[in-house]
Design brief:
Length: 257
Amino acid sequence: DVTRRSIIMYKLLLVLASAQALKRPQRALAVRGGEIDPITVGKGVVLASGLYGAFDPKGNLDKYGIKAEAKGQAAGRCTAWMQIMFAAALNLDPESVHAQMMYHMLAVMVITEPMSEVFGAPKAPSVIWMAILGAVGYKTLDGTLNKWVATAIFLANGAQAFLAPDSICDMYGIKGANKICKAMFSLMGGQMLCIGTYLAALIMDKSQSEAFAYAMAVNGVAAAKYALTDADDLNAPKTGALAWAAISAGLAYKALN
């Protein structure tokens, strides 16, 4: 059934993520003064939040004072997977991250596709996007496609979801999306913008620390936007979102100093 397939896919992704983490050297401490590396902290908290939301969307949303039904939980789970993607981007080799993120997004689309059934959405758009992501990833990896193409996919789709979640519902045939769903789609777009910002900064020859700082600044803006524009509509407290905004600002500042 759908639940069993989802659990299998979660376990597979965790195995792949663990293998990637073991393959790539990790910086547990910064080179200066034994201080904790903000990138390590940042990807850790983003990954932890994403994993919790992906495995238990109801429990995760409850922590933020959001009482969601099946559709809201499905949207929340999709948002959590995008947090996992953000953490994955921070963990990948900056030289190949643009191409690799296309493959990662393809995998996430396969994993989250059963959730689209909750919304009665057609599968054709997802299949088309999977083909595009695979092709862009392949051509970017072999150096024949400019890295800006992969970056633009995150920036353009992220901006649309973040600023106009209603248009996402219309474009992809998502039926019966309520205020919770649209707030989650907006947050999902925010995570895509974080990834796109990180990728863009790397293309512009910024250091990984600088790229991380800019991405976390966007993360803070996304959290603040939810607190200021969506929380009241959902009768949810703003505390959690404002805490995310503060954490993001702190990590961004630390990465630049």
